[in-house]
Amino acid sequence: MNQNKAIAMLGLAAKAGKVFSGEFSTEKAVKDGRARLVIVAEDASDNTKKQFKNMCTYYRVPIYFLCSKSELGHSIGKEFRASVAVTDSNLAENIIKKIEQLSVNVSDSME
Questions:
Q1: How far is residue 37's CA from residue 86's CA, in Å, rounded to a whole number?
Q2: What is the chain's alpha carbon radius of gyration, rounded to the nearest angstrom?
Q3: How far is residue 70's CA from residue 44's CA, in Å, rounded to a whole number?
Q4: Contact at 8 Å (CB) between 23 and 45?
Q5: Residue 10 has what DSSP assignment?
Q6: Domains of the chain
Q7: For residue 9, how many C-alpha atoms fall within 13 Å in the half-sphere facing its CB?
Q8: Phi/psi of residue 41, each to 5°?
Q9: Cα 9–13–60 angle (5° rounding)?
Q10: Distances (CA, A) of 3 to 31, 43, 48, 76
């Protein structure tokens, strides 16, 4: 349920012009120091996931693997997107909170 809230907040970030999407733009935002959060689609290639995980670790940018490429793209009003970078600190923090609440709820339900 919170995944939907996190994805909805991505839409708000996109409308505010605080999102870079697609692998090239996301990578550029991370390397330029503008990215505050990176989300990579769960169905992105293993190579793409590894590349972004390594890059985000190096540049100290939080990274999460969430939803499908079509859901990720749709959330920001585009076609398929394997990756999205959020450049606004407040929006990024709020999205991270929603995602972390989701993982807490998932682990609670597994006990």
A1: 5
A2: 13
A3: 10
A4: no
A5: H
A6: 2-110 (3.30.1330.30)
A7: 23
A8: -65, 140
A9: 95
A10: 27, 16, 21, 14
> What would the two tokens of residue 83 be?
């990756």
Residue 79 structure tokens:
């076609």
Residue 102 to residue 3: CA distance in whole angstroms: 6
Locate 62 and state its tokens. 């939080």
**Torsion over CA: 59, 31, 94, 99 (sign):** negative
pLDDT digits (tens, 9 = 90+) for 4-37: 888 899 999 999 999 999 999 999 999 999 999 9
- Encoding tokens for residue 101? 């609440």
Dump pLDDT digits (tens) for 79-111: 999 999 999 999 999 999 998 887 676 555 444
Q: Chain-centre distance of CA 102, in angstroms?
A: 14
